Amino acid sequence: MTGSAFVLSPDRNSVLLTHHKKLNRWFQLGGHCDGIADVPFVALKEAYEESGLARISPLSDRVFDVDIHEIPANARDCAHLHYDVRYLFQSEAGQIAASGESHALAWVPLTQLAEVTQSSGVLVLREKLAPFLSGGA
Q1: Which of 5, 6, 27, 50, CA to CA, is 20 to 30 A from 120?
Q2: For residue 137, what pLDDT is reported?
Q3: DSSP 8-state symbol, 101
Q4: CA gap 34, 2 in Å, rounded
Q5: pLDDT higher for 72 or 9?
Q6: Dist CA 20 CA 118 (whole Å)
């Protein structure tokens, strides 16, 4: 189980993505729950740890999206499924600073997401954001 954070810029026109070191791809912020049952807490904690931001606020207490994807076998683990529960946040203060888990961080305009990633798990943000914020999703 993982908790993820789509962190929007204050004007809500961009999303903060991390260039993941292990996977060498751009993703939203987030990480494993590691036994913590409070998934929204995990998503927010990971957002703070991976972004360097000083203040991040939830835009809703509702789940924004759930993505189930397979993780291939590796030296430590057999193949398994990740259940990634995603929440929506907004940056309010601070400067971004990449953690040791990423090569870089970037504010990516929502209109340019497809130029940065082909991950359907990230691109879902464009499709679901407006309906979610209007209370329809």
Answers
A1: 50
A2: 58
A3: T
A4: 8
A5: 9
A6: 14
Torsion angle defined by CA atoms of residues 115, 54, 6 and 49, in that order, rounded to the nearest 10 degrees: 90
Amino acid in position 122: V
Structure tokens at 31: 């990480």
Task: Encode pLDDT of 27-63 as tens digits.
Answer: 999 999 999 999 999 999 999 999 999 999 999 999 9
**Is the CB of residue 110 less than 8 Å from the CB of residue 30?**
no
Give CA separation, 4 vs 31, 49, 75, in Å.
6, 12, 25
Beta strands in 28-72 (DSSP E): 29-32, 55-58, 65-71
Residue that the structure tokens 């189980």 belong to:
1
The span from the CA of 131 to the CA of 137, in Å, is 5
